[in-house]
Amino acid sequence: MLGDARKAQEVFQATLREATLRSANGETSSDPFWFFRDARWRCLEASEHGLQAEDVDLQKHDLSPSAPAQIERLDVNQLAIWISAAPEPQRTALAFFYLDEFNHREILSLAELRIGELSRLLADGRRQLQAWLDATLPQKEAK
Amino acid sequence: MRIVRLSRRQRLLASCAPIREELINDRSMRAAVFCARGSDEFAKQQSFDRAVAALVQSVPIPPEIGEWFSSESPIARPRLRWKKTAQNPAVLAIGIALAVIAGVFILHLFEHLHDFSGSETAQRLLTIASSTRSVLLDPVRTDAGALGDLFFMKHQLEHYDVPPEFADFHTLGCRVFDDDEGHRVAQIWVIEKRMQFFLFPAERNAKTGAAVEFSGWRYVEQEGWTGVVQERNGVCFMAALHGREKDLAPYVSKTKE
């Protein structure tokens, strides 16, 4: 969500503190995703400060059969920065989706999206990531 | 290239298909993934998603954060609610089927609750009672209790005696005939409420040949007719009338008093 490990750690600790305070006051939430919701809003708040990604139309390429090989060559920090630079709510959708912990209904609830929106955001995200992979790690090089 | 035709909703769902199979716990999503599985496009999407997810899994987690996640899953999955479970068509269908089976079983149980050995014969005889006309019987005017001797003397029917409760009733006629199963049946028509009496052999045990006994009076109903049956010495006596159990009850309860 943030592309910055230090900021992410601060958000995590702030969320944890909030959870502890709520628990001490007997205000525990029945929502099993409260932690993720709270962390998401804190991430959005934190990302409003500092450098902002440019609002540009990214190129889109069809998914390539060699994409897994290209992704393998990718550095995890590069992927984190790429996702954190995506506009909201695409960033939330991609982050929750690739965390691989939630089903689609849970992502819809967490990202406050409808199925059509989530589908479009994920499909666009894949094609944009493929275009970026093709630009940074061309398929020939990947092989 | 394999192209699979999907509905618009299935296309939307397939695009959001979870990477891990365990997370496909929704019926519509399962159907969409099942249909999309044959397409090259979906196969590419899945291998792309798996590769990205594998990369995400390799993100190093600082130890001070990692120690907070002692369990493998940080998300407490909500328990299945009984209402949602009950709305599942498969559960609903099983529930309805079980209810129908239970209903049939209870109905069967109630139907046979008052059954006794000889109740089937008694019901058949009630059907005969409803269709019998007095002209079919030999006119005999005497007390019903006196006919036991007649049946013994004339037809060699031993123990075909009318019980004391009904022995004093004046008769209009009687006859002896063979029923469908070849049993000798004595039929008596009395004046009192145009009642009919039947005397027939009690059911016998198939192995030992001994009469199956039962105690007291048992009621049986058939097409608006009611009979009250008693077994004695291997012979059943039934008093039958066109009416209900309450019409016969006073005659039977006399002896108890």
Structure description:
- The complex is a heterodimer of chains A (143) and B (257).
- By secondary structure, chain A is an all-alpha fold.
- Chain A has two domains: 52 residues, no CATH class; 86 residues, no CATH class.
- In chain A, 64% of the residues lie in helices and 0% in strands.
- Chain A has eight helices and no strands.
- The radius of gyration of chain A is 17 Å and the shape is elongated.
- By secondary structure, chain B is of the alpha+beta class.
- Chain B has two domains: 71 residues, no CATH class; 138 residues, no CATH class.
- In chain B, 40% of the residues lie in helices and 17% in strands.
- Chain B has a seven-stranded antiparallel beta sheet.
- In chain B, strand 3 and strand 4 form a beta hairpin.
- In chain B, helix 1 crosses helix 2.
- The model of chain B has no long low-confidence stretch (mean pLDDT 85).
- The chains are: A mainly alpha (143), B alpha+beta (257).
- Chains A and B meet through helix 1, helix 3, helix 4, helix 5 and helix 6 of A and helix 1 and helix 3 of B.
Labels describing this entry:
A: 143 residues, mainly alpha, B: alpha+beta, 2 domains, seven-stranded antiparallel beta sheet, 7 strands
What's the quick description here?
With 143 residues, chain A is mostly helical. Chain A is 64% helix and 0% strand. By secondary structure, chain B is of the alpha+beta class.
In N-to-C order, the SSE pattern of chain B is HHHHHHHEHEEEEEEH
Number of strands of chain B: 7
Taken from the alpha-carbon principal axes, the silhouette of chain B is rod-shaped
Level of helix content of chain A?
A: 55-70%
Major beta sheet summary of chain B: 7 strands, antiparallel
Strand order of the largest sheet of chain B: 1-2-3-4-7-6-5
Based on helices, strands and strand pairing, what is the structural class of chain B?
A: alpha+beta
**What Rg of chain B is obtained from the alpha carbons, in whole angstroms?**
38 Å
Beta content of chain A comes to under 5%
Chain oligomer state: heterodimer
Provide the domain count of chain A.
2
Largest interface, Cβ cutoff 8 Å = A-B, 39 and 41 residues
Number of helices of chain A: 8
Residue stretches of chain B low in confidence (pLDDT < 50, at least 5 long) are: none
Q: For the terminal residues of chain A, how far apart are their CA atoms? A: 30 Å
Distance, first to last CA of chain B: 94 Å
Tally of distinct domains of chain B: 2
Shape of chain A: elongated
Largest sheet of chain A: none
Mean pLDDT of chain A: 85
By DSSP (H or I, 4+ residues per run), the number of helices of chain B equals 9
